[in-house]
User: What shape does this take?
Amino acid sequence: MNEETPDIISPADTVTIVLRGYLGRDIPASTRSLSLPLAEAPTPRAAIMHLSVQISAVGMILVNKQQAGMDAPLRAGDLVDILPLMGGG
Assistant: This one.
């Protein structure tokens, strides 16, 4: 009998996603920062959709503390901060 070994995701094959501000208010603090396999989050847009965050609520994306676009290609080990729209005057 052949048992399949589940795919093991190495930390080197992941990106870390951090939901900032009110984007994370309805989820437990422990899930506001999580690692996703790069295959599931090749761009910030893919990560946002994977996490069921409304695209229209996103005000800024930082990849490794540098502003980035929704479709910027991500690399293994990247840190992606997703910040909400902010208002004020």
